[in-house]
Specification:
The complex is a heterodimer.
Chain A (H helix, E strand, L loop, with lengths): L6 H5 L27 H27 L6 H33 L4
Chain B lengths: L4 H25 L16 E7 L8 H6 L4 E8 L5 E4 L11 E4 L4 H34 L3
Antiparallel strand pairs in B: 1-2, 3-4
Chain lengths: 108, 143
Amino acid sequence: MTLPIDPSVLTSGAEWNVGSVDGSATGAGAAAPTGGSGFGSMLTDQISKLEGVQDDAAKASQALATGQASDPEAVVMAVERARLSMQLASTLRNKAVEAFNDVFHTQV
Amino acid sequence: MGLFDAFDASGSGLSAERLRMDVTAENLANAQSTRTANGQGPYRRKEVVLESADSGAGASFADSLKAARGVRVAGIVEDQTPMRRVYDPGHPDADAQGYVTMPNVNTVSEMTDLIGASRAYEANVTAMQTAKSMFTRTLDLLK
């Protein structure tokens, strides 16, 4: 069972206020979820793009393997693009997880 | 300027150089062809004309950065230099004086074209590899 947090605790203590984000927030306690837009949707968008690039690379490789590709450069470029996009995504993911772990391992 | 614009430019270069290689190979293969499929005269040497695929001189700097650049094939044209005439009375395509009109393909210059296309292809591959390693080095900053 989770205990309800006393709102007075959240708004008191001016030293913990990091400033408002969008003008309406008055402190850490007022940082309510502000809709689906922003970082979350950007992430979803980028991941779906990444999936498209991977799909293109897979199709191009298959066409090359079955002898239907007339342009080997296009296949190589699709595969390289997919590889670099995946590398970028995984590096960003590792960095995000690292930051997350840093937060969790903060000594209090 | 997108992440992969250098890739696209180098890729178009690769395709263009491969087409040059294809056309040069065709020229070499037909260096002795005295007949063509449409029945008129010997084979004429073919040449690839390439053009830059940028947005042109009139475009603003911002537009020229946005546009996907590279090279594109303007067309394949026939070389209009005169044909070689070789004295060979026994040849079935010899004229009344015993001369055969041979293609205007110079094998030596085709070989240099071949080397040029091959080296230009390598240059594009190197540019692509460099763009790739720059990208990877940037990612290494995050590690």
